[in-house]
Write a structure and sequence with these properties.
InterPro entries: NAD(P)-bd_dom_sf (IPR036291). This is SDR family oxidoreductase. The structure is a single chain. The chain is of the alpha/beta class and about 270 residues long. The chain has one domain: NAD(P)-binding Rossmann-like Domain (Rossmann fold, 3-Layer(aba) Sandwich), CATH 3.40.50. Helices cover about 35% and strands about 20% of the residues. The protein has helices at about 10-20, 40-50, 80-100, 110-115, 120-135, 150-155, 175-185, 205-210, 255-260, and strands spanning about 1-5, 25-30, 55, 65-70, 75, 105-110, 140-145, 160, 160-165, 170, 195-200, 205, 220-225, 245-250. The protein has a seven-stranded parallel beta sheet with strand order 2-1-3-6-7-11-14, with helices on both faces. Strands 8-9-13 form a three-stranded mixed beta sheet. Strands 4-5 form a two-stranded antiparallel sheet.
């Protein structure tokens, strides 16, 4: 079986593709539509030719979804974001339908069903709705924040050299654990529904970010502010927590933190 992993160039795509290959399937990793170096519609159609499964890892919360400013942190144009993600998702779904894809796997974010009216979550909710309506059997995997996303969260939340983070509860997860479940989902029967994955430990978001920035080279301070947005959305304390049926990964933050590469201080 041929599986195509569509990614924006991050580690998630590489790890997911490797796990799929370990399951004994042919796999191709292609650039997501919509980016500056994205393939054309014809190139996407050619990449999907003969494939049975598409794993869509594009369009995740990051500091790249808006404009960073020193005074206001990340500024998100919600309408433009929804439109851009809808166009690229639509291109991928149409190409998949034309190629006869039998399973579309979409990576999304825990909390979309609760926060979906603003910020990046508005675009994520619209993307999920498009996948459901496309007529292709699908699986939506919603993940909590990955361990290595903390620094990007901090970048998006930095105003005048201070990192302002709301005290929402989170259960961050290892990227490898998410990639493993994505690969398993891709090579099994479509859910035609949603599954969640979360880490084994619960923290406050501000504490999670503060711990990640505890390096000698870090000059910013992390402060807690319940009104500070998270990628353009206002959070209630439990908005980012998974439901009771979520798959709980095994890797702890301590284990991941101890094994992460040391920061490069030579540049």
């Amino acid at each position: 079986m041929k599986v195509v992993v569509v990614d924006g160039g991050g580690l998630m795509g590489v790890e997911t593709a490797l796990w799929i290959r370990d399951h004994g399937h042919e796999v191709a990793l292609v650039q997501a539509p919509g980016g500056p170096h994205a393939p054309t519609c014809d190139e996407i159609a050619e990449a999907l030719r003969g494939s049975s499964v598409v794993v869509d890892l594009a369009h995740q919360p990051s500091a790249d979804i808006g404009t960073l400013s020193e005074d206001h942190g990340l500024v998100v144009d919600e309408a433009a974001l929804v439109d851009a993600w809808a166009r690229s998702t639509g291109e991928l779904l149409r190409a998949g339908a034309a190629a006869g894809v039998r399973h579309h796997v979409c990576l999304s974010v825990v909390g979309v069903d609760r926060i979906g009216g603003e910020g990046v979550f508005r675009a994520l909710r619209n993307r999920e709705a498009m996948v459901r309506r496309a007529g292709i059997p699908y699986s939506i995997l919603r993940a909590t924040q990955t361990f290595d996303a903390a620094e990007d969260i901090a970048t998006a939340a930095t105003e005048d050299w201070i990192v302002w983070v709301p005290p929402a509860e989170v259960r961050p997860v290892s990227l490898t654990d998410v990639a493993t479940l994505l690969a398993h989902t891709a090579v099994t029967r479509p859910l035609n529904g949603v599954r969640e994955i979360a880490g084994p430990e619960q923290f406050r978001l501000d504490a999670f970010v503060r711990t990640a920035l505890m390096t000698e080279a870090e000059y910013r301070q992390v402060r807690t502010d319940a009104l500070s947005p998270f990628y353009g959305a206002r959070l209630r304390p439990l908005d980012l927590l998974p439901g009771p049926d979520a798959f709980i990964a095994r890797t702890t933050y301590r284990e991941w933190f101890a094994g992460r590469p040391a920061p490069d201080t030579t540049s």
